[in-house]
Design a protein that fits this description.
The protein has about 230 residues and is an alpha/beta fold. Helix content is about 35%, strand content about 20%. Strands 3-2-1-4-5-7-6 form a seven-stranded mixed beta sheet. Bound molecules: S-adenosylmethionine. The site of S-adenosylmethionine (SAM) has 23 residues, from helix 2.
Length: about 230
Amino acid sequence: MPKIAPGSHASKTYHQFASYYEAVFARFFRDRIHHAIRSLNIPANAQVLEVGVGTGLSLPAYPAHAEVTGIDLSAKMLAHAQDKIDENGWSHIHLREMDAQNLDFADAQFDYVFAFHVVSVVPDHDRMIGEILRVAKPDAIIVIINHFRSKRRWVSKFTDALDPVTRRLGWRTTLGLEDIVSSHPLEVQRVYKSSPASLFTVVQAGKQAVQGSLLNGDGDGRTDRPLTQQAR
Ligand SMILES: C[S@@+](CC[C@H](N)C(=O)[O-])C[C@H]1O[C@@H](n2cnc3c(N)ncnc32)[C@H](O)[C@@H]1O
């Protein structure tokens, strides 16, 4: 696959600040990521893909009995992840430089696909979700962690106002969970926050489309109930 010049893509910011990324974000992101992965009890020999793996904050949480592939567009972010792999001798984890919007994998290849703090970063999230669904097996579990626009007006007004600033930093604050769920055959199984005040939502989904919506509440996914109960 041809390499993409770092300056020409949306991960430019992360590429430039790869060395500082963990100093800034690890304390906010790591626990939530690790909990999301560990709570799944990933079985032996499962094929796992993480898109936008970055510096590899997630990597310690993957069980050694799974086969894990991490991709990212930034070679510098990946270099930090590779250091972790080398230091820990994690032979079950492999990294590739790749665009999440154009995955170089066969259809239906992965049992688990993770996308942590990346959906609002890529230029075309619809294309990325489409690719995730393509490479996921029919019974795969997909887990997305992202900031989604709140349906609480005072919160969304605040985060919308921040959007011009965060765009310069490399992510958008205006994407709603319903924007994703309504345009893709995702069967949302669980939506939760790691803490009530968290700006980030954890979404666990399968590949089938569902009737109705999980998003009849405040849009923040502030409940951990299954879809059928929450929609009542
Ligand atoms: C906010 S960081 C999240 C990194 C990691 N998932 C975490 O939670 O710490 C976003 C990551 O997405 C990567 N990225 C941006 N655009 C991408 C694309 N089109 N394909 C793959 N990765 C991309 C960036 O290089 C960066 O590593």
